[in-house]
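Entry type: protein chain
Record version: 2
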Amino acid sequence: MLWRKGIIVVAAALAVSACGTASGDGPAAVPAAVSAADLAKVTLKIGDQKGGVKSLLTAANLLQGTPYQIEWATFTSGPPLLEAASAGAIDAGRVGNTPPIFAAAAKAKIKVISVSRSNVEREALLVPPDSPLQNVASLKGKTIGVAKGSSAHGQLLNTLHNNGLSTKDVKLSFLQPSEAYAAFTQHAIDAWAIWDPYTAQAQIEAHARVLADGRGASNGLGFLAASTAALGDPGKNSALRDFAVRVVKAQKWADTHRDEWAQAWAKETGLKLEVAQKAVEAGRDLPIVLDDAVVASEQQLADAFTDEKTLPGKVDFAAFVDRRFGPDLDQARSNG
């Protein structure tokens, strides 16, 4: 079930301030604010997943009055989205906790600019309803489907470690969600590491059973990441500041309007309403501060991948963090 690609064009006159500092490898210079007239000429290219940033902003009525244009492009998971951002094909997009680590290892030209935390119980390791597997230890030698470099990959790594196993003790089948769902329902893989709404879809449509979830195995973090080229462009930097604030406000809105959010999500993506509702009921992404604790948590995950030799060398996650929008995001979290 794939999203259709869409373009939303909206325009208004609103000047956006550009202040704050950047962290990372030699703090990037923050461009000065542009005029309302110049901002109106900006087209921000945003990558989206089935997590539904576009539908979230639409449902929260926060795509009205944006002082720049937005083009949307759909991706199956975080890694290809960040590859596109690094290559300059898009300017920004939301991803889970692991894609920025793999992007950092590849020296991608991206920075994470805001962060949220979700309910880790919805990050799951699933097995078919008739599977003889009853615990994580029984996965030794089995085939597990997972999108390489996705948040599910990170959750799987830690889940295996917590149960005395490593990824070398299982057979990983690197599949994008739609491919993995087909393999899962056809019993071509023994288990599937995945996130919502696919977790909900598999539970409802394929009666999947949760072998383990993200508790104790995932930090539940999700990031809005932007290309360094966009952050260095005065117009796009101003647009990104406004866009990041709107995402924070929409996340806060969704937490108190879960039914409305589920309906909008289902309408935008083609998900069954009951799937969207199940994914939303447990609680979705809530914005938090992009602080040192977040960076440390991500560094810990990066080091786990390095220790298993999944990634070459040590990743310095802090070098891929940019906090220039911190004051604006703090205000949005406080005021809604």
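Comment: The mean pLDDT is 90.
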